[in-house]
Design brief:
Length: 274
């Protein structure tokens, strides 16, 4: 049976990578002593990607879920009030005026806090769903980079739309993972709509604009940021064979740039009335 190249869905091929088994076209083939390999496996040289490595446990996903759950537990024990300078919630929730006062860490910590158990459960369900699908196929480092960029991008979006509001939740990071996962599927010749992920994203976007309490800026900011780093990883880097170290470096720079942008945006926030 003829298959199509995992990077070029319009090209039929009968050749598969000798390491990971994915179908590859002539433009994607690299000749090695042990057969033809895809670009990723060829770059890794002695680090061979086998079926076991592609389906291994998503350890970073579990760690991120644990951090979010522990943060909520700490909030429940002694959350504090925003602006009161006490408790996990009070010291970690995202708020523009407080970021402008020098509490820049809120751009990160706000993405690990949640207002209610339902809020936490909803985000952790999608983090688990996306993490078990995406992390084993792209690796922990790239998955972690996407999560970090998406989280900070979500905070920037929230500050842009509602700088004086108090914003918490991993939704920005989750939306970014969805955007990146869709781009990863497209790069491998998989139709995101047929997989169900495209429909999931559209439904969640609809809820974003329907439910009043949801941070529109946080969701859209995370989606755009995750989509941007996903495009870099799965479209630009893989097609042009850009070294992984360059991609990681650009991702780190993007995280820092988004954080700096968040601080700059927060400077325009007016002091809230607590």
């Amino acid at each position: 049976m003829t298959t199509t190249c995992y990077r070029h869905s319009s090209r039929e091929t009968r050749v598969s990578c000798s390491s990971c088994g994915r179908p590859i076209c002539p433009d994607c083939m690299t000749s090695t002593p042990v057969g033809m390999r895809c670009p990723e496996c060829a770059r890794q040289k002695t680090k061979v990607r086998t079926a076991a490595t592609l389906t291994g446990p998503p350890q970073l996903t579990y760690v991120l879920i644990a951090i979010n759950v522990l943060a909520y537990a700490a909030t429940a024990v002694g959350g504090g009030s925003i602006g009161g300078g006490a408790g996990v919630y009070g010291n970690g929730a995202l708020n523009g005026p407080l970021v402008a006062d020098g509490e820049w860490w809120r751009i990160v910590t706000g993405g690990f806090l949640h207002a209610t158990v339902l809020h936490l459960a909803f985000n952790m369900y999608f983090l688990y769903f996306l993490g078990t699908m995406l992390e084993p196929s792209i690796g922990k480092l790239r998955f972690g980079m996407i999560y970090a960029v998406s989280l900070v991008g979500g905070s920037l979006g929230a500050l842009l739309i509602n700088p004086n509001s108090v914003t918490v939740g991993a939704s920005g990071a989750v939306f970014g993972l969805m955007g990146a996962a869709i781009l990863a599927m497209r790069a491998r010749g998989i139709n995101p709509m047929q997989s169900g992920l495209g429909v999931t994203l559209l439904l969640n976007l609809a809820l974003t604009f329907v439910i009043p309490s949801i941070s529109i800026g946080g969701h859209l900011g995370g989606l755009f940021a995750g989509g941007a780093v996903g495009y870099l990883m799965f479209e630009v880097a893989e097609r042009r064979r850009i070294p992984s170290n360059v991609v990681y470096g650009v991702s780190v720079v993007l995280v820092v740039a988004l954080m700096v942008a968040g601080v700059v945006v927060a400077q325009s926030a007016t002091p809230p009335s607590f």
